[in-house]
């Protein structure tokens, strides 16, 4: 496998190893290249230091990933050791949740939702295809073109034999698709991915809001402690600056909840932020956005700018993350530049509105 290595924040160097190689073997190769004893090297990836005894695959290191390898100076090592939270023993530090195996869907689809509880109970007694909350305002939305299905190919019909592994989804501007995503972290001060976390994020607010999670930055001369999370597309290799838009309301439908509009059970769904946590498949959500746009019914909300309410409860609960509208711009572009302009204006206006508050 190929790994990109940044040694002491230098340029990326390509290192080729066997797929079953360990972190210690990676240190050996880099140590020989840099003329440094391997036991002095520290390998950092996705907010944690990798143990020498671990295999690269066991660390969830995908092909062509970028890892940071540093040689901490004695002065910086002693200073940064003092910054580590006292409650983290060595064992706890090694075993905190990895960003590569994190699942934050429970913070968007809690089991305490009354409507969700009814849906799940109905599924258990009547089967997966039962109608779910159709009377709550979600009209059936049909009529999909081949182009629509191509753009939304990552959200195909439910296949019970294969369940998607990804717990994050992004809108990738390169792919122009909703794609599985990967969560990464860097130091907010120096913007380098050399920060090790004191704890992993426990909910989406930890990822999206500032100053929620802290750690220790191992860049020489940086005393930053604040974590900054960002997302990348997991479907292809990415550069350091190739970031994607986080879609926190889109998730794998692990509970087989049917869409509120078409009642189909899809692999990937969007969960509205209403109290009932209504679930809608991506194609129906796209139709919902298209219909509301055609009827000029995007609603201005003082908190988020232009947005849409939940499809099952149109009087309340605005969609707070307007980034979810952008995943359908390529579709709308094919149907006329006027529609593209309208959606782009609404999204950009809403983003600027959020940044100014």
TrEMBL record:
User: Which GO biological-process labels does this protein carry?
Assistant: protein ubiquitination; ubiquitin-dependent protein catabolic process
Q: Which domain of life is it from?
A: Eukaryota
- One Pfam family of this chain: ubiquitin
Q: Which GO terms describe its molecular function?
A: polyubiquitin modification-dependent protein binding; ubiquitin-protein transferase activity
Q: Which GO terms describe its cellular component?
A: cytosol; mitochondrion
SMART domains under this entry? UBQ
Ubiquitin-like domain boundaries: 1-76
Identify the PANTHER family for this entry.
UBIQUILIN, UBIQUITIN-LIKE DOMAIN-CONTAINING PROTEIN
Task: Please give the name of this protein.
Answer: Ubiquitin-like domain-containing protein
Q: Which organism is it from?
A: Takifugu bimaculatus
